[in-house]
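For homework, think about our next protein:
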Amino acid sequence: MAKQEKGTPAHSLLIVRLSAFFLFCTLLFSGVYFPAFANDDRHPSQVVILQNKWVRAELEIGAGRLLKEKYYGLENGKWRLILSQFSPKYKNADTAETQLWNTSLNNYRFLVSELKVQNIKRQESRGNQKAIIQFSKGNNLFIQEISLNTEDAYFHVEVRGTLEGQNPNLDYLLSTYTFHHKGVPDFVHTPGLKFDDPRSGKGRDQILGDRSFHSPAVILQQDALFTAMIPDLTIANKERVLSFDARKDVLFQPSKVFYVPVPESYITMPTGIDLNVNSKLSTYPILTYGLMDSKVGYHTRFVREERNAKMVRKLRSNEVAYGFDLLLPTGNQNRQGYEIAARHIWRHYGAPTFASSSQLVMPFVDYLRQVQKTIFSPIRDKDGKLYEIPGGVIDPPIEGYEDYGSWLQWETPNGLVGGFRCSAPFWTDVINNSVFWNQAREAVGMYYWGTTLNDPKLLEKAKLLINFCLSAPRNEKGLFATVFNGKDKTWGNGWSDPPNGQNKLFMRHATSYEIPPLCKTGAHLLDYYQRAEKDRRIVDYLLPFANWLVSVIDDRGIIPSYVTQDMASSSILYESAQPAAGMWFLAEMYKVTRDPKYLQGAEKIGHYIEKEIIPTAKWIDMEQYVSCGAKPFSMIKDQWQGQWFRGNLCIMWACEGFSSLHDVTGNQKWLRNGEKCIDYLSFTQASWSPHFVYTANPFGGFGADNSDDAAMLDQRQEEFSKAFLIYGLKLNRKDLLERGVAAGKSGCILINHRRHVENKITPAPRFYPDGLGPENIDHEGVSQWPMRTHPLWGEGTAVFTGLSEIERALGGLYIDLRNDFVIPSNGIKIISNVRRNDGTRVINVESFLSKKYLQAPYENSFAIPVVIQRKKGQKLILNGKEIKENRIELMIAGAD
């Protein structure tokens, strides 16, 4: 018998022991687990810790049974607090700038930081640690799981809820954190901007809706202090919750002509991101992610009307869920935080989608032939009449020219020239070179296909495009006109004239010169000289312009963006990222001339981009100031988030320019700068196939800028493909090669074709005959099939640039035995890839266009080029046959 303690009756001791036993059983069977932790002086029943050698999380039940979350990263070998859960303190609702986190406004708002903890437990198995927390609010039940793998420098968080009622109401369910740096960090990135606009409401009421989620993340960095909140896109798709009334409100009326009706199965409760550095509730930036709807404002703001119940949505299920990853510093990172986030997104979402989706439904050549047949011929309907769409006739005949559809050609004193004309109804006679559509760019791809397919017609038209570019009149400094008006055969210097107060596009006789289009056109002409035919006229034509450009580089490495007709430099966009186009052009000019002044000029601009643009991602270019979401040039930074107004055209120019500098100097610094640029460019590429996008599958495609941020599959993606492929090959990065393939193929998705409809890639196309397509989709944040603006910002660029760059770089299948990766691109799927004990690589592929994968399969066999990179002695067996050559043609069986 146990010895009785002094002064304690036996029955009392028994009662105490029984009570302890029953309490232990209650805790055990309710799933609560309170581990003891060494070197932690708090009560062990209040704290759960998840930790590996990189990151640490402390989860503590605080006052009122509210959970306190703290996340730590390493700095100089010590734990530093990076994130902590945010619970707002509203003293007077009217004095706070934003009401997003004010749960007192209605009964359907849930912040995880305000939910009462019911229990918490910790689990560990096979290198994974997990904390499971159960919450409640009224009759609404929630579970949050926080997990950490042994080698990961991030926490994965999932939040699930069971809402009261069969068709419950929900305003939002959100997770909120503060980033422990007072004020605005040097580097800030989110998917979009907030700013006051009479068509879009106040910036204080705006969030970033999932319509802007191309590769979504909130990223903050100050020196080594870094975090990234990245939505779990798999959960967003798999755990989607249908809603009766979500995704339907707008603050302005988009054009009904372009609207594509959406089936009810696509109407789901949205997710949204928010970053606020100016909340008046915390001195720290506040990060938020979760389930919440918004109203779409003009080009494109996502607005919440917080001070009423208008954001409450009715759901078709009471089960809801979302997830996200929290990336943290490890103390030994040799890359900027956004580079880590870019790789993270592709690894978890882009790569699996790439492997599981063919994207296209025909071989490359079939797309080329379809487009070639359509755009070089008169476009007529089934009755032989001019093909009409809203706004006018597609490519109407121009008096004085033979009708070749989208193509015009004519005689000049120096011979025959030709070019692609604009398809905007008010500009159908205009041929021009811009930062968007560009005749010289397409000439490179046309020449490639003409040579590869032995097609003299494509070769001829490529030459005529070059003739057109070289026929543009120049001034005494070599600056050349970019706008040709077909009806009266006159030239205009440009199509936009900000120095003279004309902040718009589609002008016919702008008197000022826009320098980036001149640099871009020059770079593409020099690319043609190097990769197509060495036409000396190109170099001679560009020499005066190159000499002038070198002469105007200032001490910082800046060149003007605009120059007036009397050659005065404008201050507009002077300190932007647009000089990157000049770096690209001058580096290419050095390649073909070896004149050191061009290299010195390119490097001087490169130093400017390296020092003043890359560190904070100050990628300001012209597009959002003069294009669809036009605004004053003074708007350069978002006061609510602390990030720059950014475009992605200038990033691509920088990628090309740094690559060219690396080519001619061998300096790894330029390659490293380019790698930073290409990683940042990736945030505007769709790394997934969002369930709520009905119009077309946007995977691999691009948006435009962080102001006009809802459009998907905007046709710049084809020329972006080249940059990704260049860096993928130079850096031996499989992710960049996959991105490049996905980008180049995505340009073909909007080409109207019955196979696209039958395979539900574009389930409900509008307006256009086979072979043509719009510039993008969902431009105004709703389901839309917009207008075609130009064959060279659409189907022409898709096949002449996107597909040609893929095949030129990788063939239809790229096998790199040196770095142990395989990249399929043209209609094939990898079904096995193994390495034998003797080192032999055995790969089997099959058609991705067969009935096994497509509802409407491609019936014919087709051939693809296979490119193989290997070290001496490395063996390859492909589809049962040993391959000794480094380039072969592989026949792929048809539908059966």
